[in-house]
Amino acid sequence: MLLASDAFCALLRRDHPLAGEPSVTVGDLDDDPFLLSRGGCERHIRRLYRSARVPFAPAHRVREMGTLLAMVRAGVGVSIVPDLAGSMLDGDLTLVPVRPRRTRRLVLAAAPDADPAAAALLAAARGRTVGPDPARSGGRAGAPIDAGRNVGAAQ
């Protein structure tokens, strides 16, 4: 089940010269050391660089998002992160969309015979509830729910 589509953005200090731009390219970021987040989006970032024919040479590789944010805030470099990271930013940092636009799909995946907790999560994502529904199940708890096929990982 597709939950959302999330675009990639440059992560910059608010006082960075590119912070006020409507969008940037990966080539625009070449003047600063690049900080690579190892949190699962590396393949998307590599594709951005490859498609732009810009050499990919991260100055630092960082595993934790909090560390990445602190390093950008301290002026160590710049990064590219999913737009969802915007909820973690303070007033010192900003996101600028990267062009050409690259997105990732956030999906929820569960096996058809998923346990009740997974089925409930899937149902909630679909806007349904799981549990007693006398009108649907004759007073029995939890009528079966098709758990679907796609829900759980960023692609």
TrEMBL record:
<keyword id="KW-0805">Transcription regulation</keyword>
<feature type="domain" description="LysR substrate-binding">
    <location>
        <begin position="3"/>
        <end position="126"/>
    </location>
</feature>
<feature type="region of interest" description="Disordered">
    <location>
        <begin position="129"/>
        <end position="155"/>
    </location>
</feature>
<protein>
    <recommendedName>
        <fullName>LysR substrate-binding domain-containing protein</fullName>
    </recommendedName>
</protein>
<dbReference type="GO" id="GO:0003700">
    <property type="term" value="F:DNA-binding transcription factor activity"/>
</dbReference>
<dbReference type="Pfam" id="PF03466">
    <property type="entry name" value="LysR_substrate"/>
</dbReference>
<comment type="similarity">
    <text>Belongs to the LysR transcriptional regulatory family.</text>
</comment>
<dbReference type="InterPro" id="IPR005119">
    <property type="entry name" value="LysR_subst-bd"/>
</dbReference>
<keyword id="KW-0238">DNA-binding</keyword>
<keyword id="KW-0804">Transcription</keyword>
<dbReference type="GO" id="GO:0003677">
    <property type="term" value="F:DNA binding"/>
</dbReference>
<dbReference type="GO" id="GO:0032993">
    <property type="term" value="C:protein-DNA complex"/>
</dbReference>
